């Protein structure tokens, strides 16, 4: 029996039909066509499906689609505003912090969540916050540099 | 005539000889000459081999020239990932 | 190719522009394998053997076929045997008389939804006769081992050895007399090592969409390192003409060699044809671990002897590699790579290719080399310590150089091993102080790189911008490098070139993206295509000016007369010539179809500092430096990325990653929780040193770089652990329980 879910995704109202055992990840990708969020494992171990649900960073493969009812979901597709990338997205490109790019949406969502709560993280804090996001291509070096550089630039603009 | 070095495993077909001399102008000629002289080597050769000419590796170049003074080495087919 | 590399100054090659596919990747718009859909698409799912080894007596699909919503079912019957050289892969894609490993595909369905497909799989009845299994390489070589393939013979052994066996081949390399060499030595070290199997661990599971009509034509979308290979095998297994199957490579979420073959693609093609609808198959993570292509596991004996002045007098290695249920464990390449770094008078290496009840091996970044490098470089380190020699000096004293007869046969041309070792020795990391409980290790490694069949096509638009089509999927950012090389040759800005990976209908055959070959081969083909286009443009300029073609040259993006005698015409830019192309002879293009060869071998050396926790056995990597020769770094940020990424994969294998098999022959850890790859908090920054000793076989001197970085790390870490604790680890991964055990036994 299909469930009817009404929710908000990236600021826009959205609704879909889903099975009771369908995950939020499946609903985003298959019902709403938002394929930016990726499935790497389906068991909450890789972070490629990271989204923010009502302000909280979650693995969308561990959230039921039905749980999005009446709540607000933020995905990678909601970061840039039209042509304008966020500082974080720009820094990922400048630092070559992606190679294949499949883990990148998850990292962007997770890193943004970090910087929202801590605008001046240490390298260690960045590494431990992002420990739930697996990357197999980069060895994490350029990702960490991109996040730290984003934090630095955002702090400079805040003080300007 | 050019000297051709055979890797260890194929030497069982040459009676233990590590280096043989064949009459060939290119890599296809080398493979053909080896197969003609050592018929038991043919399956291994047909399965695919890589060859080194003066230190450069070739896997798929029939008409790559070999000179009488070239160092030619027959190797198993090399793959990567 | 002009040999002007040493004197050439590049204007764009060597810079760090933003990659062309960057914005779509940071906004989630890039489409990977599972991101593609077609109207009316069915969901395909695969039924897999739960047994490590079993005869398949009967498959009854009738109940599944009767389930509403099921549109097609396939088994091995749908992939008839043919004499086409695809026997092993056909059997791996779909089991025939036997299931050979836990996870081996037995049947597949296409249905209107994932739920119906899963239910259909539950309704398929398979009658198995469970057989004894073997998963360990040494066990599989014993005469009492369960036999996988009754007709297997050991290739290259003397013809008399003809009993049933799991040993598929024996490979020998070397020259001189190692036994005599050991007798001359003052110090000899001999050890046996074990290396467990690892997986490439790409974050994106295999995924594809097939759309085939009943007349045997259609399209296939998939994530792959080689869409021409996918076409060849999928068409071959389904009895289709090559030209009738068009394969498009999606963006790929990691490959590292694991996506250089097929698993689900021929199955999706078969299901789509039978159902008369598009079919999408996406592997789960569980399936990826159980049923794609991990590395071999290995058991390796190494013996090396040296005189007290530090010269190696004899070296011997015997490698036993199991590559899963089919021959091809790459024991031959491991035996070739074993002593490739050294200049040896007496050397011998033997490789045994063994089958076991495990998934069929697929390549993983320099496949075969990391395991044997772990063994050899550990013994080298132990020897150096015994003799009280600095580990880099010991290696320098025996390093292969130009003119060295390699241990696997050819004589080396100009190579970068010595320079790499010296660069590492001069790096501040080498002299940085260590605290108690910390240790430092060094190791060097080798890999062949290669060329292969490559086709590119370069088309110049009327507005003077360039569309470059290559046939090698981009797994590391190579499109940016292709644009740089085209822009460099043509003399136009980087952002006037757009590079795409074209489908199989648009270009001639391209070998897979592997062997660190793309920047070398597609780069070479791109440069050639650009030079061909330049010839056309010079001819057009000559026609416009009414002067002979050989009186026109191309400089800085312009055609101009070669000298005052040729004529006094102002230069014509590429854009000028393009704008008039429709009137001067038609659209302007350059293309290149080549088997690129002469790639040149690659060496790297790594340095690591570790701290060993004596209570838990945990090893923390404090500092890591990679030095490697790139020939010419076209886009330095991506070369650094390869060094860092490959090193971290090696560190993961060194410290945690392994396939764990239970007594039932089933994989115990098919998920990222228990197959633990490095996470961000495990690691420090990874420093990189890019050396550039040009490769004479490439117009810019490029050497492949992608694979070599994974070769040294396991030995580097083992040597660092030895330095920290005095204990020699001989079993990889050097996970906390193993380290603790070794410490307690010391």
Descriptive report:
Helix content of chain A is 35%, strand content 16%. Chain A has helices at 24-31, 87-94, 104-117, 123-129, 141-159, and strands spanning 3-9, 12-18, 50-53, 56-59, 72-74. Chain A folds into two domains: 3-78, Roll (Ubiquitin-like (UB roll)), CATH 3.10.20; 87-159, [2Fe-2S]-binding domain (DNA polymerase, domain 1, Orthogonal Bundle), CATH 1.10.150. With 160 residues, chain A is of the alpha+beta class. Chain A contains five helices and five strands, in the order ββαβββαααα. The mean pLDDT of chain A is 97. In chain A, 53% of the residues are buried. Chain B has a single domain (2-76), classed as Ubiquitin-like (UB roll) (Roll), CATH 3.10.20.30. In chain B, 21% of the residues lie in helices and 27% in strands. Chain B is built from two helices and five strands. A five-stranded mixed β-sheet of chain B has the order 2-1-5-3-4. Chain B is globular. The mean pLDDT of chain B is 87. The model of chain C has no long low-confidence stretch (mean pLDDT 94). Chain C has 746 residues and is of the alpha+beta class. In chain C, 28% of the residues lie in helices and 24% in strands. In chain C, helix 15 links the parallel strand 18 and strand 19 (497-501). A seven-stranded mixed β-sheet of chain C has the order 3-5-1-12-9-10-11, sandwiched between helices. Chain C has a six-stranded mixed β-sheet with strand order 7-15-14-13-8-27, with helices on both faces. In chain C, strands 16-24-25-26 form a four-stranded mixed β-sheet. Chains in contact: A-C, B-C. Chains A and C meet through helix 2, helix 3, helix 4 and helix 5 of A and helix 1 and helix 19 of C.
